[in-house]
Automatic annotation (TrEMBL), chain A:
Name of the protein this chain belongs to: ABC transporter ATP-binding protein
Protein's GO biological process: D-alanine transmembrane transport; L-alanine transport; L-isoleucine import across plasma membrane; L-valine import across plasma membrane
Sequence ranges assigned to domain ABC transporter in this UniProt record: 5-246
Keywords: ATP-binding, Nucleotide-binding, Transport
CDD domains on file: ABC_Mj1267_LivG_branched
Source species: Muricoccus nepalensis
Gene Ontology MF: a single term: L-isoleucine transmembrane transporter activity
Gene Ontology cellular component annotations, sorted alphabetically: plasma membrane
InterPro entries, A to Z: AAA+_ATPase, ABC_AA/LPS_Transport, ABC_transporter-like_ATP-bd, P-loop_NTPase
Keyword Iron (UniProt): no
Keyword Aminoacyl-tRNA synthetase: no
A Pfam match: ABC_tran
UniProtKB/TrEMBL annotation, chain B:
One function term, GO molecular function aspect: branched-chain amino acid transmembrane transporter activity
Species name: Muricoccus nepalensis
Protein name per Swiss-Prot or TrEMBL: Branched-chain amino acid ABC transporter permease
Top-level taxon: Bacteria
Membrane protein topology class: Multi-pass membrane protein
Keywords carried by this UniProt record: Cell membrane, Membrane, Transmembrane, Transmembrane helix
């Protein structure tokens, strides 16, 4: 199967600090991939290098075989990359439907239409309804986003990324700060994503991750520690070590 | 936007237009000229609101953009001997070009940096107008009869300005409600999300700034015909601040607030200065009170009250 995302020896250096140090990985098209690791392992920095928020200082990022290492964030979006944010990042003073409009228009030339009202055509309306339905936000269209509950805002995070119909969807801790019930909603949303969409997610919650993905990459200290299927990760001694600390043999 | 606006604001706009149209019928000639001034500055405030209210970036250089248009219009008629219409067109063109230059330098900044950068650029224009006296007349400025013969009477000139300002405001209103206008409010709320969705944020800000400068240029060209005199004061920081205050008093992000703000400030200036020389102190107190009791401005306050009642 063709690779959707390839990282080739990617490094990100902030002055003397190597936040990401020579990470190489391949994510085949359609795969669900988790990137895990303890705090400070470099997950978020790696994520930023993929989305373009920071530039990789060494190595290459390939999206569907094309080098995007030096492209700015918005240009990567045009190449089929979509993302959500760990800290809810919506348009709080706009309504839900206006948020969805912005999500749709980012890749359409209509974003430069200077005069006239914004109307969705039938196909666009279908996309909005599908994304909102999947995220369980139908019926909330005219509410301002700042009036939504935190859980609903997380759902809108997903809905906006979905509406752009990315071929590669990057989820940055989609369940951060959610109650168990809301977590279940988010994992249902992720499970319901179209199978053709490649999904890479960062997540702290191991239980959530391991039930959702096909393959897991574990980072530690900016380096790739181990890659394996979820079941193998659960029992992997090195993963347990970085998460829980070294077992004390002398005890 | 799909959200159907409540009919009350529409009614308010219709009433406002009627009021402005009826003013010359009831006011003495001097007051008609005050009303003309209000219209000109309303458009300046509206142009500032495009940036302050929609992109969330407060400009302090729009007085310079406005005034450059005034300079060019008056220069074209009095020194170069051209027609006032061509002068106005050139004035708007110059303002748009200047705004594009400001925009190139300022669109990658936000917050207080945007404020200071536009302030500094405005000061540069002011300095040039003051020192380049062979062209601008230096401190003495430029004076001359600019107004076309057809608009010689106060009342006919008032109606011409009313038509121009309403047409320009209508276009700006369409702009902020367009798909492009929505992207500006998106940038105001979250730039990083806009980038992730595929928007080239600086490009959108550049277009918004340039078009906003064009609207300020239209106001400046109208001001040239109204005032028939221009000096460095017209491009000064005080001018930028006054335009911004008008937008704030009316309500930032409401667009039509510019009309209320301009009317409030100009009417107060005229009445208070009639009674006391310390009118600026009185104005200052008014601003303080407004910022305490209605920081969202007159229209902003009204809309908030409406929303609460629903």
């Amino acid at each position: 199967m063709e690779d959707c995302l390839v990282l080739d020896d990617v490094g990100v250096r902030f002055g003397g600090l190597k936040a990401v140090d020579g990470v190489s990985l391949r994510v085949p098209a359609g795969q669900r991939r988790a990137i895990i690791g303890p705090n400070g392992a470099g997950k978020t920095t790696l994520f930023n290098a993929v989305t373009g928020v920071v530039r990789a200082t060494s190595g290459r990022v390939l999206l569907e075989g094309r080098d995007v290492t030096r492209l700015p964030v918005h240009a990567r979006a045009h190449r089929g990359m979509g993302r959500t944010f760990q800290i809810t990042n919506l348009f709080p003073r706009l309504t839900v439907i206006e948020n969805m409009h912005l999500a749709l228009r980012g890749l359409s030339p209509r974003r430069f239409a200077l005069l006239g009202e914004d109307r969705l055509d039938a196909a666009e309306r279908a996309r909005v309804e599908a994304a909102l339905g999947l995220s369980r936000l139908a019926g909330r269209l005219d509410r301002e986003v700042r009036e939504l509950s935190y859980g609903e805002q997380r759902q809108l995070e997903m809905a906006m990324a979905l509406a752009t119909e990315p071929r590669l969807l990057l989820l940055d801790e989609p369940a951060a700060g959610l109650s168990p019930v809301e977590r279940a909603i988010v994992s249902d949303i992720i499970r319901a994503l179209p199978r053709a969409m490649t999904v890479v997610l960062i997540e702290h919650d191991m239980d959530l991750v391991l039930s959702l993905v096909d393959w897991v990459t574990c980072l530690d200290n900016g380096r790739l520690l181990v890659e394996a299927a979820p079941d193998a990760i659960r029992g992997d001694a090195r993963v347990q070590e970085v998460y829980l600390g070294k077992a004390r043999h002398d005890a | 936007m799909p959200r159907a606006g409540p009919s009350l604001p529409r009614l308010g706009v219709a009433l406002g237009v009627l009021l402005f149209a009826a003013l010359p019928l009831v006011l003495p000639t001097y007051q008609v000229s005050v009303a003309t001034r209000i219209l000109v500055f309303s458009l300046l405030a509206v142009s500032i609101d495009v940036l302050a209210g929609y992109t969330g970036r407060t400009p302090l250089g729009h007085g310079a953009i406005f005034g450059v248009s005034t300079y060019v219009t008056i220069y074209w008629v009095t020194v170069a001997g051209g027609s006032p219409w061509a002068g106005m067109a050139l004035g708007v063109l110059a303002a748009t070009g200047l705004a594009a230059v400001f925009a190139l330098l300022a669109v990658r900044t936000s917050g207080v940096y945007f404020l200071l950068l536009t302030l500094a650029l405005g000061m540069v224009v002011w300095g040039v107008c003051l020192r380049w006296s062979t062209v601008t007349g230096g401190e003495n400025g430029l004076r001359g009869s600019v107004r076309p013969a057809a608009l010689a009477s106060q009342v006919s000139f008032y109606y011409a300005v009313l038509a121009l300002v309403l047409a320009a405001t209508f276009l700006v209103w369409r702009l902020v409600r367009s798909p492009f206008g929505l992207t500006l409010r998106g940038i105001r709320d979250s730039e990083s999300r806009m980038r992730a969705l595929g928007y080239n944020v600086p490009l959108h800000l550049f277009i918004a700034f340039t078009l906003s400068g064009m609207a300020a240029g239209v106001a400046g060209a109208a001001y040239a015909l109204f005032n028939e005199f221009v000096s460095p004061t017209t491009v000064s920081l005080a001018q930028s601040v006054q335009g911004l205050l008008m937008a704030i008093v009316g309500g930032v992000g409401t667009l039509f607030g510019g009309f209320i703000g301009a009317a409030a400030i100009i009417v107060l200036e005229n009445t208070v200065s009639f009674y006391t020389e310390r009118w600026q102190t009185v104005m200052g107190l008014m601003f303080v009170l407004l910022m305490i009791f209605a920081p969202e401005g007159v229209i902003g306050r009204g809309l908030a009250l409406l929303r609460r009642r629903r």
